[in-house]
Design a protein that fits this description.
Rossmann fold; binds NADPH dihydro-nicotinamide-adenine-dinucleotide phosphate; alpha/beta; seven-stranded parallel beta sheet; five-stranded parallel beta sheet; binds oxalic acid
Length: about 300
């Protein structure tokens, strides 16, 4: 019997309890704030209540139900605990579809066409070949890596920026702070697929926007805390940025009175770019619990020192 606690300060994860028990009938699963959660050996989390792990003396494994782990490790005493995340080909395919939609929205000038429609104006935006639209991917991991492989096939000129250097067929790769400006200078549509770490927090701000060619666009699918919202609004207002598709926000749900809802050039989507099915999530969590019991290597364990 392994005790498992479902932990979230923002979502009710109780629906995962019967799914986990069906996947492994030897699991004893409860949902925070059930006080039994404090005795659990495994924490399965989305936006875990800060400070909670410190009150869980039996904890042996922290598992995110998502690809990102920022909201699972923030404000916690990890004391060397292993932290795992979800990695899934369909989740990556979902992100590819969302980013492709955003790329087409800007490349094929659907933003201009929709603006014309609103004022009943028949105006055909000038169209250009895909090769003239330079896509810059921030992050070349599970998600950015797939997009880097697929967009060039559609004719786009693609580059990527990662922490460490590498060669990726069909794209130009930049890495590290030293090559950041060179990466931005040749990017028309900037796509953020970075994890949230202390190095990447606030990266989508004035310094980044000013280094892009004038009139560039942003597709942001990372985390809300990457974006300095006021500096985005200023860059849109000045015309430095042409538009932004934003899927993630510092405060989710985005408050009713938030200026981004109605900012010219901004498309707001409700953190929907991609997600793994709950069957996949439950399968991966149950598999890692079995690995833990067997003393075997965990799947998709993150480097907690690096933050992703
Ligand atoms: P990975 O961990 O597989 O990849 C992260 C990438 O970011 C790596 O290429 C890494 O570089 C790069 N990176 C990290 N830190 C830096 C830095 N300081 N400078 C430059 N590059 C850096 O993550 P995934 O691709 O699986 O996911 C990325 C993020 O996408 C998640 O953390 C989450 O925030 C977000 N996400 C959003 C979803 C949505 O629906 N909006 C859904 C799923 C995920 P290197 O390769 O050199 O290590
Ligand atoms: C994730 C997410 O990290 O949904 O998987 O944002």
């Amino acid at each position: 019997m392994t005790s498992v606690a479902l932990l979230s300060r923002t979502a009710n994860l109780d629906f995962l309890r019967p799914m986990l028990q069906a996947a492994d009938p030897t699991l004893d699963v409860c949902t925070w704030p059930d006080p039994r959660a404090l005795q659990a050996e495994v924490a399965v989390c989305w936006q875990a209540p800060p400070g909670l792990y410190a009150q869980m003396p039996n904890l042996k494994l922290v598992h995110s139900i998502a690809a990102g782990v920022d909201n699972v490790v923030a404000g916690q005493d990890l004391r060397g605990l292993p932290v795992c995340r979800v990695v899934d080909p369909m989740l990556a395919e979902g992100m590819l579809q969302f980013v492709l939609w955003g790329v087409l929205y800007f490349h094929r000038k659907l933003d201009a066409a929709l603006a014309s429609q609103r004022i009943r104006e028949w105006k055909r935006p000038l169209q250009t070949p895909a090769s003239t639209c330079r896509i810059g991917l921030m992050g070349l991991g599970e998600l950015g890596g797939l997009i880097a492989a697929r967009l060039p096939v559609l004719g786009y000129t693609v580059s990527g920026w990662a922490r460490t250097p590498r060669k990726v067929p069909g794209i130009t790769v930049f890495s590290g702070e030293e090559q950041y400006d060179a990466f931005l200078a040749q990017t028309d549509v900037l796509v953020c697929l970075l994890p949230l770490t202390e190095q990447t927090r606030g990266i989508l701000g004035r310094r980044t926007f000013d280094a892009l060619p004038r009139g560039a666009a942003l597709i942001h699918c990372g985390r809300g805390e990457h974006l300095v919202e006021g500096e985005l609004l200023a860059a849109l207002e000045s015309g430095q940025l042409r538009g932004a598709v934003l899927d993630v926000f510092e405060q989710e749900p985005l408050p009713q009175d938030h200026p981004l809802w109605s900012a010219p050039g901004v498309v707001v989507t409700p953190h929907m770019a991609t997600m793994a099915t709950y069957d996949v999530v439950v399968g991966q969590v149950a598999r890692n619990i079995a690995q833990l019991r067997a003393g075997a290597a965990l799947f998709n364990q993150v480097d907690t020192a690096r933050g992703y």
